[in-house]
Amino acid sequence: MSKEEKRSCQNCYGEFVIDASDFEFYAKIKVPPPTFCPECRMQRRMAWRNERTLYKRKDAFGNDTISIYSPDKPLTVYPRDYWWSDAWDPMQYGREYDFGKPFFVQFRELLESVPVSGVFSSNVVESPYCNHVWRLKNCYLVFASLECENVCYSDKAEHSKDSFDLYLAKKCERCYWAVDSEDSYRLFFSAESSGCTDSAFLFDCRNCQNCFGCVGLRNKQYHIFNKPYSKEDYEQKIHELDIGSFQNFQKTLNEFLQFRLTFPRRFARLINTTNVAGDNCVDVKNCYRCFDLRENVEDGKYLTHGGFGMKDSYDGYGIGICELLYEGVDTGVDGGSRQLFSVVVYSSSDTHYCFNCANAANLFGCVGLRKKQYCILNKQYTKEEYEALVPKIIKHMSDMPYRDARGREYRYGEFWPVELSPFAYNETIAQEYFPLTKEKALEVGFCWRDTDKKKWDVSVLAKDLPDHIQDTPESIVGERIACLTCGRAYRVLKEEYDFLKKERLPFPRQCPDCRHKVRFENRKPLALWKRQCNCAGAASENNVYKNTAEHAHKETHCPNEFETSYAPERSEIVYCEQCYQNEVV
Questions:
Q1: H/E element holding 81?
Q2: Radius of gyration over every alpha carbon of the chain, rounded to an integer in angstroms
Q3: Among 266, 283, 302, residue at a domain's last position
Q4: DSSP code, position 117
Q5: 233, 305, 423, 475: least surrounded by Cβ within 10 Å?
């Protein structure tokens, strides 16, 4: 087994470490070690995933369709249902492998010839404006989600219904603006809470009902800003707060954001985990630098958003139910193994450099294939021919590597170059997690697409809306409202208006994209810093929080260190697991 090695990233030139367990994994899947550092590999993968940018363009039949591919992209777009049908055959675009030019050039040529589906979705009903989704019904502007019904303006939602503005929420019903939360009913403007009902402005609460503006509570009811009330006094106070008024809502929100800074945070949101370094993981074991994973994930590194039985895998986003996955995006869903360097590959095994394939095996450099095996560049081979040709292609990829405009080399073992992505950098989630200016993106070799210049024909300015939801007439439905933040026009659905009216919630002044941005930017980054616990004995280091129990370290500063997504310069009070448990649970 190779020992730990320090290497220089050929993209950012920073130093990164490949340890003994990494070398063991790479040997197991028979790929060379990476030449990009983990952060640059993540950025590169994300630049191949357009999650939220939708366009109206003509499909191959001249009809308007919703697509994640902008109208100027040289791609043939089929309507989603037609793409999934047997009316066409992606094998007809197959071609011989050309040893006279780099593999990645050949793959891009194939990608531009094989028709693509307008959006990535499966088993959806009346949900055309959604992408990277599975089993949705009556959903609108929902992304990277599954098993939802009557959900709008949400991202990474699961098994939820009749809700709006969710982000990483699971089993939520009649919720509004719930982030990193689950198993809740009528939970509004809350984060990192579970099992809560009829509550608003909660953070890190569990099994609470009729609570408002609370932090770190367990099994409580009728509390406001962590203070207990009688049922009658609680209801009277909630009536007085009246967040149906946008002005009252803003005042309460600001108070709550300041209030929650006075309580200690758990260094990482790790639930039922063993030997895990990361954040927001549930039922995970032996994973490092992993984020937003759940349900029986074992032995992984550099994985984000997914899980569901994933084992022994590295470097993925939106992945699950797979083993020996490496460098994958939206890959592994519904099972599979050895899915390497692939985007949107489901229920498949032994796939290399594939794009949007399903129920397949032994594919190399294929696009759009379903229920196929032993194919290279969409051309059929026998098992013997395939097994003889693939090693030659792998050798050719090293002998004739692809070189991008900046001189970076891509041999076998590297994910696709960003410049070959069918999406501009700012159309993808890479721009969310690794934001760049247009000038910087172009400087480092990424593509950029300027926003379509068109007149925003607005009929109402958000700043001119009535202050209270009860004073907002139903005629606002369908109006083109100018977003208070970006100025772009947005509409409110009748279902959303009725929901806000019934729940006495404030009418939104921002468009769905700006609301998503607020939720996203309030989450912690996909990064780790080494820090020491902020518990200084009887109180926090900044003396803002007074401990309620005696800790093992008593009056001395807690010596515990950890890796956390809270950067050292942030203002939150961050406690280790032991100190947090003493105070909150």
A1: helix 80-84
A2: 25
A3: 266
A4: E
A5: 475
Domain residue limits at 203: 143-266
User: Is 62 contained in some domain?
Assistant: no
Measured CA to CA, the distance from residue 311 to residue 313 in angstroms comes to: 6
Structure-derived torsion over alpha carbons of residues 292, 295, 299, 300, reported in degrees to the nearest 10: -30
Beta pairing, strands 355-358 & 373-376: unpaired
Confidence of residue 320 (pLDDT cuts 50, 70, 90): confident
Mean pLDDT of 454-483: 92
Compute the half-sphere exposure of residue 513: CA atoms within 13 Å on the CB side of its CA: 15
**Residue-by-residue DSSP string for 474-521:** GGGTT--EEPTTT--EE---HHHHHHHHHHT-PPP-S-HHHHHHHHHH
| pLDDT(176) > 70 | yes
Per-residue pLDDT, 451? 81
Domain boundary among 503, 521, 539: 521
Task: Identify whether 562 is part of a domain.
Answer: yes
Does residue 243 surpass a pLDDT of 80? yes
Residue pointed to by tokens 């009749």: 162
Chain-centroid distance of CA 453 in Å reads 28
Q: Using CA atoms, how far apart are residues 450 and 432, in angstroms rounded to an integer?
A: 16
Show the tokens assigned to 514: 């700006």
Mean pLDDT on 459-465: 94
Res 333 pLDDT > 90: no
Decide: 246 and 233 in contact? Cβ < 8 Å: no
Structural domains of the chain, count: 3
At position 233, the amino acid (one-letter code) is D
Q: List, in sequence order, every residue forming a beta bridge with 273; answer none if it has no partner.
A: 284
Q: How many Å apart are CA 281 and CA 127, to the nearest integer? A: 29
CB of 335 within 8 A of CB of 323? no
The answer to whether position 410 is within a domain reads no
- Report yes or no: 303 and 318 within 8 Å, Cβ to Cβ: no
Q: Give the type of residue at 160.
A: S
Model confidence, pTM: 0.95
Residue 474 phi/psi, 5-degree rounding, is -65, -20
Judge contact between 277 and 291, C-beta under 8 A: no
Write out the DSSP string of 328-368.
EEEE-TT-EEEEEEEEEEESEEEEES-EEEES-EEEES-BS
Residues 6+ apart with CB under 8 A from 94: 375, 377, 378, 379, 380
- pLDDT tens-digit profile of 33-92? 999 999 999 999 999 999 999 999 999 999 999 999 999 999 999 998 999 999 999 999
15-18 and 5-8: which strand pairing?
Answer: antiparallel
Residue 1 confidence (pLDDT) above 60: no
